[in-house]
Write a structure and sequence with these properties.
This protein has about 400 residues and is of the alpha/beta class. It has 2 domains: about 250 residues, Aspartate Aminotransferase, domain 2 (3-Layer(aba) Sandwich); about 110 residues, Alpha-Beta Complex (Aspartate Aminotransferase, domain 1), CATH 3.90.1150.10. It contains 14 helices and 15 strands. The strands form 4 sheets. The protein has a 7-stranded mixed β-sheet with strand order 2-8-7-6-5-3-4, sandwiched between helices. Helix 11 runs parallel beside helix 14. The longest helix is centred in the N-terminal third of the chain and has 21 residues. The protein is globular, with a radius of gyration of 22 Å. The protein binds pyridoxal-5'-phosphate. The site of pyridoxal-5'-phosphate has 14 residues, from helix 4.
């Protein structure tokens, strides 16, 4: 297999349509674009197989159910789950983490501890804060070093015998730093605690192996991995999922309902009340197959080389501060920076004026911004279709910002 970002880019209609100027799309950590093959899979489903799942016996209902369950199997394969039953479809990472907070969290008791890291997106922070308020649970925080890495030397202090869960990101959406999961798992297991990983940024860059990671829960979103909005996944170990109470009540998640009482379906259905995101699951399957069709080894070489160019140029610029690790190792292609006093929204707008789409603000990671003593930063995040033209245009844009703010 060879890897050519430009030929991949040609598979994405967004780069050909609707634009008054070329698009240099570097906001992939927020949402990636969708290739034609994913759009086609969704259109094909909506055109020829649309129906509700699991309930009807007519052929469309059966086709929809088959499509939906095939998507579950594809996800299970992509993340190394031992069974598709371990794959719960949610509306996204946020929904998946709230599911854990409201089910696993339901079983925690006053005085139990949950550890989160300062690198978390709000979606892996606020649900634990809310749970702490509801149940008298104590939140502990694992700090982050200046270079964006978790300060693992503090693990012994924050993970005590009362710890029930460590909730951590697999990769920071701000710094791109990849977490040393084994250290977290070791610390958690030493006190009998579980580990939840937020994989929202990790899974778009290739398959993961939840078994090898040794974690208990893994959450991610489709829209960051070339799939539609409105679908996400919670993976949990089957034996653990079976011990959890339902999350939301409704159709599809019960075994029986009568005046005497209710019995619940086993996982994953127990956690999928109501009509699930069927077309979105079809799109997620197509997106995973699209990622799997790419030579990811070569893709990583390209993304490292793009990042190396960008980081080297940035490091040489006075007044530009990179928020995150030095170098490209153990890091995904996400580069955040501040530029003197320029507000990240102004930086983003100036970049947009030459067609560069980046994100400016706190990136739903205010505790991390506080740790860096900044209000926000500008983030360029790369997908599989980005190439040197994106890096070069971004650097030109940064020159333009400098010109305006000098
Ligand atoms: C690391 C991380 N976790 C969670 C989320 C939330 O994802 P969603 O909005 O799809 O639920 C994001 C989104 O930016 C993210 O980057």
């Amino acid at each position: 297999m060879t890897f050519d970002p430009l030929s991949l880019r040609n598979q994405f209609p967004i780069f050909r349509t609707n634009l008054d100027k070329p698009l240099f799309y570097l906001d992939n950590a927020a949402s990636t674009q969708m290739p034609q093959t994913v759009i086609d899979a969704v259109t094909e489903y909506e055109t020829h197989s649309r129906a509700n799942v699991s309930r009807g016996v007519h052929r469309l209902a059966e086709a929809a159910t088959e499509n939906f369950e095939a998507a579950r199997q594809t996800v299970a394969r992509y993340i190394g789950a031992t069974s598709p039953k371990e794959v719960i479809f949610t509306s996204g990472t946020t929904d998946a983490i709230n599911l854990v907070a409201q089910t696993f969290g339901e079983q925690l008791e006053k005085g139990d501890e949950v550890v989160v890291t300062l690198a978390e997106h709000h979606s892996n922070w606020v649900p634990w804060y809310m749970l702490a308020k509801q149940k008298g649970i104590i939140l502990k925080f694992l700090p982050v070093e200046d270079n964006g890495r978790l300060d693992l030397s503090k693990l012994d202090q924050v993970v005590t015998s009362k710890c029930r869960l460590i909730a951590a990101t697999h990769c920071s959406n701000v710094t791109g730093a990849i977490t040393d999961v084994s250290a977290l798992v070791k610390a958690a297991k030493s006190v009998g605690a579980k580990v939840l990983l937020d994989g929202a940024q990790m899974v778009p860059h290739g398959p993961v192996d939840v078994g090898a990671l040794g974690v208990d829960f893994y959450a991610f979103s489709g829209h960051k991995m070339y799939a539609p909005n409105g679908i996400g996944v919670l993976w949990g170990q089957q034996s653990l999922l079976e011990t959890l109470p339902p999350y939301r009540g409704g159709g599809g998640m019960i075994r029986s309902v009568s005046l005497e009482g209710i019995t619940y379906a086993p996982p994953p259905e127990r956690f999928e009340a109501g009509t699930p995101p069927i077309a979105q699951a079809v799109g997620l399957k197509a997106a995973i197959e699209w990622i799997e069709s790419i030579d990811l080894h070569e893709a990583t070489k390209v993304s490292h080389s793009l990042m190396e160019t960008l980081l080297t140029e940035m490091e040489a610029q006075k007044g530009l501060r990179i928020i995150g690790p030095v170098g490209v190792n153990d890091r995904l292609p996400v580069v955040s920076f501040t530029l003197r006093d320029a507000h990240p929204h102004d930086v983003s707008q100036i970049l947009d004026s030459i067609g560069v789409a980046v994100r400016g603000g706190h990136h739903c990671a205010q505790p991390l911004m506080e740790a860096y003593e900044i209000d926000g930063c500008t983030r360029a995040s790369f997908g599989l279709y980005n190439d040197y033209s994106d890096v070069q245009t971004l650097l030109n844009g940064i020159d333009k910002v400098r010109g305006i703010f000098s």
